[in-house]
Design brief:
single chain, 103 residues
């Protein structure tokens, strides 16, 4: 087993599976939130974008600050991760809002 910086083991296939599962769970939560606020804020990309920013706010900044404070991630890479996460989540929310239709 190869050791990386901070004496951590190199991640294997199980780690990838966990992140894929977490991605699906975040997506499900995102669609659920969009469906929950849609009657109040109205359907469309604005509502989807608001929900994307809300989900991003509760997931990314806290996790990234934690990684930086433990020395696991340099600040410049953390800034890139936070911005990329915002783009990623908002695009996912827009796609979910476009696909979501009520019966």
């Amino acid at each position: 087993m190869t050791r990386l910086a901070h004496n951590l083991a190199q991640p294997g296939g199980g780690v990838i599976g966990v992140f894929v599962l977490l991605g699906f769970l975040i997506g499900i939560v995102l669609v659920w939130l969009y469906a929950a606020v849609r009657p109040r804020l109205g359907p469309g990309p604005k509502t989807a974008g608001i929900m994307g920013v809300a989900v991003w706010f509760f997931i990314y900044p806290g996790a990234i600050v934690g990684f930086v404070s433990m020395g696991l991630l340099p600040a410049n890479m953390a800034a890139l991760a936070v911005v990329w996460g915002l783009v990623e989540i908002v695009l996912a929310a827009l796609a979910a809002g476009w696909l979501y239709k009520e019966a």
